[in-house]
């Protein structure tokens, strides 16, 4: 079976963002190790996801046979995003920190893939994620130094785990707005980890 990787980028600097550059390096190494593998790219800045509205919510919760043409189009768009992430064994995310959290474009993407009965379901034992058996690597770029014990990391773990993706590794690139040795050490450590993962 052909290996598949989904890369999701959310930096406003697009391919020039530090999180994007490191994610791209990892993807290039992955392609070398998986020459017949398929890479699916989702750039949330080049192709913004529409914000979730009441109309979307109603479309998702209307039985298929009762949906209007407009509702069908909304659900179809969400289905495409879910099909991409469902097909991938490896998910690579470039995630800068904006105002102490994830970019709004990434949050909007999450809004479209979190669908009851499709990517998670409620059981007698609580919610159960359905996007399982995936390795997620998050390249988290930050201007300051915040470490792993931060709300941004906690939210990503909580959301990804909610839809079934519990094997998550964070590679932090911190201090990007701070000149000096600490910034360079962080970049070097991130690059070493990419090599180790390849």
UniProtKB/TrEMBL annotation:
Cofactor: FMN
Lipid metabolism listed as a keyword: no
Flavoprotein listed as a keyword: yes
Cofactor remark from the record: Binds 1 FMN per subunit.
Binding residue positions for FMN: 11, 97-100
Function noted in UniProt: Quinone reductase that provides resistance to thiol-specific stress caused by electrophilic quinones.
Name this protein carries in UniProt: FMN dependent NADH:quinone oxidoreductase
Name of the gene: azoR
